Amino acid sequence: MRIFDPHIHMTSRTTEDYERMYSAGVRALVEPSFWLGQPRTSVGTFCDYFDAILGWEPFRASQFGIAHFATIGLNPKEANDPRCREVLDVLPRYLEKDRVVAVGELGYDSMTPEEEEVFEAQLALAVTHELPALVHTPHRDKLAGTRRTIDVVNASGLEPGRVLVDHLNEVTVGEVAGSGCWMGFSIYPDTKMDPHRMVAILKEYGLERIVVNSAADWGRSDPLLTLRTGEAMRAAGFSVDDVDRVLWRNPVEFYRQSGRLEIDDLDETVGAVAGATFEGNSVLRGSRD
Ligand SMILES: [Zn+2]
Question: Which structural domain range is residue 13 located in?
Answer without folding.
Answer: 3-260
